[in-house]
Q: What sequence folds into this?
């Protein structure tokens, strides 16, 4: 075999896996179609280190998020990656929502996440400018500079002797004896073939296509492109908010409601919302006509907000396997020997909390590799 392990996709998850497995064996390759890392979902998100509050008990999302956030905080401290454990408030703005936040508290506790129920006066101490009847306070939620994080995973991969090949798109995968033949196409559309014992499919929005390319077609694992748009809060009002503030989430977790996120530079964003796009639709435009809807949603808990305080910012696309209206789906991470593809590890539907869980996902994948 030309390679021992081949990882497809240099987003935050593929990079974390590459950094984790490159020390185990020689000949580890990370392939990425763009000229550098993190050009898709990994650089178009809220950069929140999630606590693990909402995910169903026993799910991979719950387990890997809770493990992943601890690993990530330790990693950031050790590697001097900018982060802030700023905490998050989930605010109830009506009597009905007070009931819901109590349910959220129980789900979080099932996942081992402790939340504090705050009364109005306690909320005012933390965030004097917001409106909430009651709120849950999550102390372990934070934010991270995801670009610095990915850069560190890249450096660790290279230091371990792993090889990263940018500008190389995987266009073919064929099962052969004891491994796989990979076809690559470079920027000039020249194609190359090589063989590898193990394939790790971490191709984000096209991970279903990669799996299909190898011969595994599964309607149940079809990726739905699900867009999330953001508006930005103009200065000086961005200084009125110090931490993450979320409304009560939608009941099937298609998204967790238009919320307020802060970033490492002190910027404040509203979003993301939830819009299912057609298949393969890389539409990153922010829709100016959504201004009204964003304003109205946020105004409920940001009473100081005026219509012109927000402007369109950016959008990201979630690689969802949950179809519109369906109950929440878990991450799909599996070694596909049972489907007849030993040594082929699929990661499909790695939406939020994929950034938070990048290190725990990498550990999980490590255990699926037989070396
Ligand atoms: C709006 C939004 C907000 C989010 N907020 C958060 C948050 O606050 N906290 C959190 O924990 N998570 C969040 N997430 C989720 C998080 O961003 C993702 O889980 C994470 O970025 C997924 O990383 P990835 O490496 O799996 O995928 P990607 O970043 O999509 O990387 C996949 C890579 O594979 C490459 N690729 C694809 N096909 C091929 C091919 N054929 N050949 C070669 N390369 C290929 C792509 O170019 C891409 O670089 C959010 C997501 C969205 C959309």
A:
């Amino acid at each position: 075999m030309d390679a021992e392990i081949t990882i497809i996709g240099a987003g935050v998850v593929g990079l974390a896996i590459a950094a984790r497995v490159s020390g185990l064996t020689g000949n580890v390759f990370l392939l990425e179609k763009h000229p550098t890392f993190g050009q898709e979902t990994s650089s178009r998100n809220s950069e929140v280190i999630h606590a693990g509050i909402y995910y169903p008990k026993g799910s991979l999302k719950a387990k890997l998020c809770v493990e992943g956030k601890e690993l990530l905080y330790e990693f950031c401290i050790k590697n001097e990656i900018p982060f802030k454990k700023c905490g998050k408030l989930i605010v109830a703005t009506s009597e009905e929502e007070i009931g819901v936040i109590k349910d959220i508290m129980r789900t979080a506790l099932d996942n081992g996440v402790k939340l504090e129920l705050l009364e109005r006066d306690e909320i005012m101490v933390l965030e004097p400018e917001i409106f909430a009847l009651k709120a849950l306070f999550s102390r372990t939620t934070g934010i991270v500079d995801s670009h610095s994080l990915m850069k560190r995973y890249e450096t660790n991969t290279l230091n371990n002797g792993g090889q990263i090949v940018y500008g190389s798109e995987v266009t073919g995968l064929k099962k052969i004896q004891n491994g796989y033949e990979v076809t690559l196409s470079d920027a000039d559309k020249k194609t190359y073939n090589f063989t590898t014992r193990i394939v790790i499919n971490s191709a984000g929005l096209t991970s279903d296509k990669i799996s299909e390319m190898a011969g595994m077609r599964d309607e149940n694992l079809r990726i739905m492109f699900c867009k999330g748009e953001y508006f930005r809060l103009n200065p000086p009002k961005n200084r009125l908010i110090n931490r993450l503030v979320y409304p009560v989430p939608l009941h099937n977790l298609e998204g967790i409601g238009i919320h307020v996120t802060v970033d490492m530079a002190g910027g404040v964003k509203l979003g993301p919302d939830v819009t299912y796009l057609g298949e393969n639709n890389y539409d990153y435009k922010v829709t100016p006509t959504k201004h009204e809807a964003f304003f109205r949603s946020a105004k409920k808990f940001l009473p100081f907000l005026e219509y012109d305080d927000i402007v369109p910012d950016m959008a990201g696309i979630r690689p969802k396997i949950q179809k519109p209206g369906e109950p929440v789906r878990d991450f799909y991470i599996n070694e596909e020997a049972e489907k007849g593809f030993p040594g082929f590890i699929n990661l499909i539907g790695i939406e939020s909390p994929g950034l938070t869980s990048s290190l725990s996902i990498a550990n999980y994948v490590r255990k699926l590799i037989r070396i």
In short: Residues 60-79 form the longest helix (20 residues).
